[in-house]
Write a structure and sequence with these properties.
Number of strands: 4
Order of helices and strands: EEHEHHEHHH
Helix content: 25-40%
CATH topology: Nucleotidyltransferase, domain 5
Strand content: 5-15%
CATH architecture: 2-Layer Sandwich
Number of helices: 6
Distance between the termini: 69 Å
Length: 171
Amino acid sequence: MKPAKPLREDSEYERNGTCSIFIFTEPLTGWRHVEVRNQRTRIDWAQQVQELLEIHYPHAPKIKLVMDNLNTHSIASLYQAFEPETARRLAKRLEIHYTPKHGSWLNIAEIELSVMTRQCLGRRIPSIAELSHELSAWVQARNDGQKGVDWQFTTSDARIKLKRLYPQFKD
């Protein structure tokens, strides 16, 4: 401190830990599933995909997943988590589409995460158990209301917005 200078205070941010939130959403029906995990590894992702396929959609021959390019989001993760027969059986039921780099706004799960953040996560939640409880209530309310996503992004919009990703041909 120096004479005639205002008092300055600094605060320390105390981090109570982190966790990962996995979300699956079916936008046309207004269904979503959220799971809280301590971490986000290939094994965690593979277990979530297995749950999606075997518990939530056991009779669907093919599931289309649209997701970002995170390194854990790959078929290789299934082979790391499960025996080859199980991994192959699960992989055969997946059709994976990755959003473009810097295009998370195209990912409907990201839209759901944004809504979840505004409606449920706007404060510090002290434990994973409490977070799981809060998110379960949020998911139940969203699913009961069948709040879907009104996706209005068209192919012509994509051609304008994503112009730099399309090849340019000279005449």
